[in-house]
Amino acid sequence: MDFDWIFDWDTGMGPRRKGRHRGHGPGRRFFRQGEVRLALLSLLKDEPAHGYELMKRLEERSGGMYRASAGTIYPVLQQLEDEGLVRIQEDGGKKIYHLTEAGREEVLLHEEGIDRIWKRAHGWKDWGSTMGPETAEIWGSWGRLSKAAFKAAAKSDFENTERIRAILDKARKELEDL
After folding, report:
1. For residue 2, is it within any domain?
2. What integer is the mean pLDDT of 6-12?
3. Do 71 and 56 belong together in one domain?
4. Residue 89 is assigned to a structural domain of this protein
5. Which range, of 15-19, 63-67, 101-105, 128-132, averages the lowest pLDDT?
6. Across 125-147, average pLDDT
7. Which of 18, 51, 56, 178 is the least crowded, having the fewest Cβ atoms under 10 Å away?
8. 113 shares a domain with 95
9. What pLDDT was estimated at residue 153?
10. 80-84 long-range contacts, Cβ below 8 Å, gap at least 24?
11. Phi, psi (rounded to 5 degrees) for 21
């Protein structure tokens, strides 16, 4: 049985069968609306690539926490071509996508948003390095602890919030000492 090793914050569940939550990180969407478009433009600014190569780069940039599907990437690439932001060049039977001058201008126009995407991806990459089959046994407990802490904090006053923080800090210290 093949699994995507992601965490679902809502249920406190760990491994999911492939196909469920694809393209998601820890129980949440990796890209916000319009960000796949910007990410692809950004990657093409680095160098031209074919669709599969772009899918692999997205996965690498997220530390494996985001796996793009052809059903996500190719419609966006078609949209970028329709907008005149990329052009296609055939090479050995593969479509290689190149950024146009208008595409370069679009990247510059959205530079701040693109930087936010890759900073977030770097954080997910760090997160993903600690998630895997060997840690699956504790995901449910960890998720329930996190959910209980957030629920308690949401309905507490300042004094109880400090108490919640102290409990969590004590648990973290004990785990670090293992």
Report:
1. no
2. 43
3. yes
4. yes
5. 15-19
6. 69
7. 178
8. yes
9. 86
10. 80/37, 80/40, 80/41
11. 60, 25
CB 39 within 8 A of CB 59: no
Average pLDDT estimate for 146-170: 87
Q: Would you state the torsion angle of the CA atoms of residues 107, 86, 60, 122, taken in this order, to the nearest 10 degrees?
A: 10
8 Å CB contact between 176 and 41: no
Q: Is the pTM of this model over 0.85?
A: no
For residues 77 and 154, state if they share a domain. no
Task: Name residue 3's beta-bridge partners.
Answer: 17
Query: Could you tell me if residue 156 is inside a domain?
Result: yes
Query: Does 90 lie in the same domain as 120?
Result: yes
Residues 56 and 115 in one domain: yes
- For residues 66-71, give the mean pLDDT: 86
How far is 105 from 81, CA to CA, in rounded Å? 15
Q: What is the pLDDT of residue 128?
A: 55
76 and 155 share a domain? no
Same-domain check for residues 78 and 42:
yes
Domain that holds residue 112: 31-131
Q: How far is the C-alpha of 106 from the C-alpha of 116, rounded, in Å?
A: 16
Buried b (16+ CB within 10 A) or exposed e, 59-95: eebbbbbbbbeeebbeebbeebbeeebbebeeeeeee
Strands (E), the chain: 3-4, 16-17, 86-91, 94-99
Domain tally for the chain?
Answer: 2
